[in-house]
Amino acid sequence: MLALLAIDAFVDRVDASRSIERKLDRIHQRLSVSNSSGIKFAQRIEQEKIQDLIGSAKRTLWIAGPSNDGIVQCQDEIRARLQRGVQVRMLMADPTDQLIEWYGRHVVGPTFSLLDEQGRARAKARLEDNRDRLVGLREVAGGNYSMRVLERMMWFGFIIIDAGERDARMDVQVYMYKTSADTAPLLRLNSESDAKWWRIFMEQYELYWAEARDVLG
Question: How does DSSP classify residue 184?
């Protein structure tokens, strides 16, 4: 009888141990998923990486930012994507006097660094030049290129690669109050492993796009 009781006790301990191991495995799996986020608090993405990111687009390329200064320098890469049939969306701030003033009060950076009249005039001219250069991409785009301007503050910049596809990626640049974009968080998301954050930022991008004005006619 004692032997049987000992065996029963041993079996109970083994079952309890296995139950604990299973629970620990489940916890580990949940932690692994939660830690799989691609969110990074890093400096603004380097120009070379922007070019590589744009060059990786196979189906769609959606870009949005207040000034798109770095994007203007990637026209050759965007043009090459357009020639390969990639659908491109371009979105930037509408360079109105009011919007330039709003950005000047909130954003620290090379474009919106001055609040005086001369500084605002330079910022407006720079954005107008960026807009006109990006509009010029339609010459090689056919029906693959859409461009809009938004007369609202944009607190996030986006580069979204192959939206709607299983391997979709998104870089989100955060523009913080009185903080240089060079030190603000850069979020790098995958549509599957970062599904929750992906939906949140995709909704923000789509809201920007929906409220923006078409400049290509």
Answer: S
- DSSP structure class, residue 83: H
Tens-place pLDDT, residues 135-170:
999 887 667 999 999 999 999 999 999 999 988 999
The phi and psi torsions of 116 (rounded to 5 degrees) equal -75, 170
DSSP E strand stretches across the chain: 39-40, 60-65, 87-93, 145-150, 156-161, 169-174, 186-190, 213-214
The encoded tokens of residue 38 equal 């691609």
SS3 category, 185:
coil
Sheet bearing 213-214, strands edge to edge: 39-40, 186-190, 169-174, 156-161, 60-65, 87-93, 145-150, 213-214
Mean pLDDT score of the chain:
80
Report residue 144 CA to chain centroid gap: 21
pLDDT tens track for 50-90: 899 999 999 999 999 999 989 999 999 999 999 999 999 99
